[in-house]
Amino acid sequence: MTSARYRAFVAVARHGSLSAAARALHVSQPTVSAQIASLEQQSHLELFHRRGYRMNLSVAGEQLLPLAQKILALEAEAEYFLRDAGQLNQGTLHLGAVGPFHVIEMVAAYRQRHPGMKLSIRIGNSRQVLEDLVNYATDLGVLAGRHDNDALDALLYARHAIILFAHKDHFLARHRSVPLAMLEGVELLRREAGSTTQATLDKALHDAGVRTECALEVGSRESLREAVARGLGVGAVSEAEFIPDPRFRPIRIEGDPAITSTYIYFARERRESVLVRSFLQAQQKVLESAASMMQSPLS
Prior knowledge:
Layout: H1 3-15, H2 18-25, H3 29-43, E1 48-51, E2 54-57, H4 59-82, E3 92-97, H5 101-113, E4 118-123, H6 126-134, E5 140-144, E6 152-167, E7 177-178, E8 187-191, H7 196-208, E9 213-218, H8 221-229, E10 235-238, E11 248-253, E12 259-267, H9 274-282, H10 284-293
Parallel strand pairs: 3-4, 3-5, 7-11, 8-9
Antiparallel strand pairs: 1-2, 5-12, 6-10, 6-11, 6-12
Helix pairs in contact: 1-2, 1-3, 1-4, 2-3
InterPro entries: LysR_HTH_N, LysR_subst-bd, WH-like_DNA-bd_sf, WH_DNA-bd_sf
Family: Belongs to the LysR transcriptional regulatory family.
Organism: Bordetella ansorpii
């Protein structure tokens, strides 16, 4: 089987139709159709269920997908190794992240070392970022918090205190910092289920025996900012992600009882890959600083 057939298979699985896959691969639709038909005829398996123009993976297709993605990832690794004496003067590095803040910082550092490389960033929730790594859809992922997965390794990139921010007319806005106990009964805006920031703050509140009111649940940082700006409640965010705004005031929690940690994740078996190693080397100074930070409490 040629890699072109695997590439067509992965593209159809990702985009859901022959036409969309053809556009993504810059080939004709009949070419993609023929490659899928060839795979199915040779294996005597139905890899997709056809529903009009839509194509959904069958059980066999779902089992093949991570293997095909791994084959394509290894093929790319071989090309990078053999081409340009391993200098990475061309090609694409695929990243996954739950938010733009740290990953853009990392991309800037990488581009300084490898200006000829292209980078693709896929933003999603934690579950999607981890699945993409395991399935070889991305090369590295940037996530908050530790996630147990035997197939993945993680390196600490940064640690930041969680801070509050409130409308400028809110009573908490008169304080630069407050004890956690002062949040008793305060209407605290909640992030969506699965938010590491929310889970970390919830644990700190629970451990301190502090109960807050749930004013509203929001699904993004942008929505959180607007809700705070309109006086709907108090927000919480990683200190590194706080963006100043005249409509509200930042408030530190005394003693920094809630800390978020950002990690770079990658498949364990790809630790020595050219792509993964080149990205980690570009972040080396920050990674070394984060490692030393773990030796002492966050100040």
